[in-house]
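Collaboration report, partner site 2.

Our partner group contributed sequences for two proteins of shared interest, and the home lab folded both. The records are reproduced in the order in which they were received, starting with the first partner submission.
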Amino acid sequence: MALAGWFNGRVPGLRALCIGNGKSYAFPLPKEKAQDGKHFVDQKGVPASQQANCATFPATLGVEIPDSSGLLNTYIPALLEWAKTGIRDNRGST
């Protein structure tokens, strides 16, 4: 519980870091609470399209990511699968 309190106290600071890129730091909804398969939903006046976390942020810059849920328990295994097939360099492919 103490760790959760410490971490929750840091979230406003994380959100402040995102002001320059137009994104708001948000925690994704767990798999069982996802709405229509979406893990980021409109909340606190911030549309889902303007939310990201550490796993999904690269996608906001156009970098392909292996899993768009933002859930690290699915993102990390997907990333490890990618590592088996080699690094993907998509620069200039769009």
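Second partner submission, folded after the first:
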Amino acid sequence: MEQTKLEKVINILNEKGYTEGQIAYFVQNLTKTNFARAYVEAMATFTKEDIAKIENTTSQEQADKIIAEIYTQRTGKNANIEAQKFIEVFCEGFLKAYEKTIT
């Protein structure tokens, strides 16, 4: 099975001597950045009623589900697919930059 671009990035970090903790921190921050990007895009389309609906949820999981649903309704995009695209683009840039350093 072919490696994903993120797996390739992680392998490079391992080869460069980064610890598992540092790599986990990197992936966690990449995920947070990705979520923040999507959240900002979504919030730009939310109405006061949407925000009230989100704030009245009983769990973060429920709020995330509502945010994703509203995001899809307002933007016509699937939040999960957009998240995957963000990670792919980031990893492509990382891999291209890395290739320049070794050639």
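Feedback sent to the partner group on the second submission included the following. Helices lie at 5-15, 20-43, 48-55, 60-75, 79-102. The chain has one domain: 22-102.
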